[in-house]
Amino acid sequence: MSLVEINFDGIVGPSHNxxxxxxxxxxxxxxxxxxxxxxxxxxxxxxxMRANIRLGLVQGAFLPQRRPDEAWLKSLGTDTAHAGxxxxxxxxxxxxxxxxxxxxxxxxxxxxxxxCHLTPANLVTMPHRSHEWPETLAxxxxxxADAAHFAVHDPVPPPFGDEGAANFMRLTxxxxxxxxxIFVYGESGGPFPARQxxxxxxxxxxxxxxxxxxxxxxxxxxxxxxxxxxxxxVVAVANENVLFCHEQAxxxxxxxxAELQAKMPDVVIVEVPASKVSLxxxxxxxxFNAQLVTLPEDGSSAExxxxxALILPTESRDSETVWPWLEKMVAGNGPIRKxxxxxxxxxxxxxxxxxxxRLRVLADPAxxxxxxxxxxxxxxxxxxxxxTGWPESIDADHLDDADLHLRIAAARSALYEALxxxxxx
Length: 425
Ligand code: SUG
Hints:
By secondary structure, this protein is an alpha/beta fold. Helices cover 32% and strands 19% of the residues. It has helices at residues 26-30, 38-54, 70-75, 85-92, 127-130, 133-143, 198-207, 222-227, 253-263, 279-285, 314-317, 322-331, 345-348, 376-389, 402-418; strands at 4-10, 35-36, 58-62, 103-106, 116-120, 150-152, 168-171, 180-185, 215-219, 236-239, 242-246, 268-272, 291-294, 308-313, 336-342, 358-363, 394-395. Mean pLDDT is 96; it is low at 298-305. N~2~-(3-carboxypropanoyl)-L-arginine binds next to loops.
């Protein structure tokens, strides 16, 4: 069996809108009330997937959830006609597109039973995200139904907030070998919530059967959360033996680096100093919310340390501070050699960069339900469904439009039908 990294992107749903629901997410707050473009948003996401396939990366996708979430409103004793604007906005969010928050994934080489373990995130801190997990769980159970290779758990129960892979990193000497799994939690975010509770991280690690000797729990710095890094993946990203992070990402930087180096002596830490790129600039440009990938063209396993690329938002390229620093970095002798900007502006306006839009699963593609795996022909099919069915724009002040709800439902159903996943509608 050959394990490969598969990126499962969330297809942006037809209800994508800007109502500023995420306290501590500066882009979401800044764009509250603006008119969104669901069709353009989904097309941007599809083109990102296509570009990654063309780079030789293996691509999967998860589907948009039912919005407005009638079942959730019903559980609260109301419905779309009576919920009122605030609750309705929470029921209309397309936030399941950010699949880095769908689950935490421990690949097979790291777990006691040799299977890949997945735990959907409960996302309890934010009301609009707290009702994502049932549909996420249903998709995970279908995509990873092969019990010989996967274990799909229930989410960690409240009150311990779990935000999934956005607060998780894995470092490894080579694919197929056991990794070091790093869980990043928050204690305090100053004025903003710390969304990842350490008890949730520990519960996930226990349930996944991880080796405590190869597991690290590290606190995110209050300063980073207070500056707008509501998830660790806004200030750090890891791939194979490389950690790329901001100097102020962690509460105890020196202690964390020492523990990491002790557990993994050949780790390469590429740190961006605050004197070159401030936390504010990092959060504005999302340079860390990048897919740090090993490109197949560069990579036999013996060589992989010299061929990594950062797939990062065009906002990073547009920054006069960040881009020159990155260009200098790739020109040097470090492991990251290429910068690939992608346009995901519609998602970015809600605080979701390229890395937020994907969940990494290390697995043999042959063990996964093929309906969740993408190729260019399938992306063409999805593009056609989106281009005809997705609303071109949604005004955040008119989320109560019953015709819009019908249109969103029909568009979503058309996608599930096109991908032969009607049992999930
Ligand atoms: O949870 N935005 C998402 C962005 C998630 C980004 N994910 C990662 N960093 N992995 C969030 O804050 C905004 C939704 C709104 O305002 O309607 C939102 O939910």
